[in-house]
Amino acid sequence: MKSNRQSGVSRRTYLKLAGAGSVAGLTVTAGCTVDTGGDGGDGGDGGDGGSGNDTGTDGGDGDGGNTEIVPGTAPGFPPFEFKDDSGELVGFDIDLLSAVVEETDYTLADWEEFEFDSLIPALQNDRIDVIAAAMTITEDRQETIAFSEPYYNADQAILVAGGGDFSPESLDDLAGQTVGAQEGTTGAGVVEDELVADGDVQESEFRTYGSYVLAVQDLENGNVDALVIDQPVAQTFADQRNVEIAFVYETGERYGFGLRQDDDDVVSALNEGLQAVRDSGQYEEIRNEWFGSDGEEGESGNESAGNDSAGNETGNSSNSSAVGE
Amino acid sequence: MDPTVVAQTTGDWAFVLDNAPYLFVGAGLTILLTVVSMLLGFLVGFPAGIVEVYGGRVSTFVVETVGIVLRGTPIVVILIFMYFVFSTPSLTLGLFDVTVTLSDAFIASVLGLGLRSAAYQSQIFRGALQSVDEGQLEAARSVGMSKLEAIRHVVVPQALRRSVPGFQNEVTIVLKDTSVVFAIGLAELLTRSYDLFVRQTTAVLEVVLFVSAIYFVLTFVTNRGLDLVGSYYEIPGGEQA
């Protein structure tokens, strides 16, 4: 009823306090020097209203005078892109793109990180200029973005728990089992198209994960019978965890750098850069660094030589579930 | 552990503890996002609640419609709209020779989380305002206060006190929802935990437990703190009013 005299704070003081509190809160926020995630660093060119990108690319790139390329990736996919012991972004894609851009007139800005599914929207909205995230060139994706020449060949590997009694030898052996993959990846597409569509695997038996690390954990725990995952990554997990590659499903997949369809200059520059990196032997060095000098297991078609000017054909049966429409 | 597994350099818990500072930086961003979003939510949501209870026909309609849209949209969709569709710019603040550049992703996150929180908070305050007895407003008017004065001096002070429990809940929800900013590339606590178990894949359980503990401490401290605020400003016998 009557206001509280006991707390020593009158109604009005209380309100003023509440008001002052919020103002103080804002001040503290403004004055703090926490790095706000992204690239809260160099203020870029604060001048181009509306382009909203710290790194100084102006949205649209319409002026042709912009020589900085903003790369984007989705970490968590060793050895292509992941965080090392000091929290730095490292991996095959990171090194390769740096080497490729080195060969062109462009410069590479700081890396932006997204979830894999957010990469294509980020590219189309000019947040980033190139995707380097072990992204498979598929027809679905080519409807929305352009790709560079392929820079890596990969097939899908089927991972099963180590020492278990389940050792499938072909996709048919997976019928009636629980199968997992990471959302939005080609592996998920393979399961969808080859197994779920035919009724071999029930929709309810198909598990998708936000990250392959969690998928492998689930495999070890026995909650899922098999995973479909890019072969080089599968090899990394097989080395580190109690899982093994049961067999390789050849999809003839090729990874490419994702680019905007109207950025012809960037596409051709990167393609030339990629060729230069191959010719100079740098590609070989980078690949050996991340995959060991013996290349990966599997047929030698996975060597860079087989990739040379492989044209941009997408002769793969796999149709990845399209992302980012 | 299977003998074929490559021996890890450290035990999983040692690995988590070694990397605790890395996670704490993420926790700092989580706290910052929560505080700024809650402030924005309060500054927009409190007036919105007042408008919904006492506003005119047009203003009430506008506020209610915006609220319904914000409350009915998943937070991930709101964030993606803010970041990709509206293209939020980055913001450079200067204060006492210290300049801070807030990245565009941070601004988009604060706007997304803050405006959605405002929509929820407006309902918390609406409920609190409506719980104050009508007779009090009449009594205030009869002693000569204008409608605005009566709301400001009689209804709002009581309503604010009653909205503490709902507000506590909202803080907790926003704190945990900050984890969805990963979608637009902000490395907060949960994102950083993903980075960690990609590096040492055997440590999934340990990392998740550790991060959960951080979230728990944050929510617990916040709730206890607001409990104290609530009991400090409590009106003796005010519940029957």
Question: What would you say about this model in short?
Answer:
The complex is a heterodimer of chains A (325) and B (241). Helix content of chain A is 31%, strand content 17%. With 325 residues, chain A is α/β, with parallel strands linked by helices.
Order of helices and strands of chain A: HEEEEHEEHEHEEEHEHEHEEHHH
Ranges of chain B where pLDDT stays below 50 over 5 or more residues in a row are: 1-7
Q: Helix coverage percent of residues of chain B?
A: over 70%
What is the gyration radius of chain B calculated from CA atoms? 22 Å
Overall pLDDT of chain B: 87
The biggest beta sheet of chain A is recorded as: 5 strands, mixed
| Fraction in beta strands of chain B | under 5%
Low-confidence spans of chain A: 1-9, 17-64, 293-325
Q: Report the span from N to C terminus of chain A.
A: 57 Å
User: What is the count of β-strands of chain B?
Assistant: 2
Distance between the termini of chain B: 64 Å
Describe the structure.
The complex is a heterodimer of chains A (325) and B (241). Chain A has helices at residues 11-31, 92-102, 119-124, 139-142, 186-196, 212-220, 231-240, 264-279, 282-291, 304-307, and strands spanning 68-69, 71-73, 82-83, 89-90, 107-108, 112-113, 130-131, 146-147, 152-161, 179-182, 206-209, 226-230, 243-255, 258-259. With 325 residues, chain A is of the alpha/beta class. In chain A, the strands form 4 sheets. Chain A has a 5-stranded mixed sheet. In chain A, strands 11-10-12-9-13 form a 5-stranded mixed sheet, with helices on both faces. In chain A, a hairpin with a 5-residue loop joins strand 3 (82-83) and strand 4. Mean pLDDT of chain A is 75; it is low at 1-9, 17-64 and 293-325. Chain B has 241 residues and is mainly α. Chain B is built from 10 helices and 2 strands. A two-stranded antiparallel sheet of chain B has the order 1-2. The radius of gyration of chain B is 22 Å and the shape is elongated. Chains A and B meet through helix 1, strand 3, strand 6, helix 6 and helix 7 of A and helix 2, helix 4, strand 1, strand 2 and helix 5 of B.
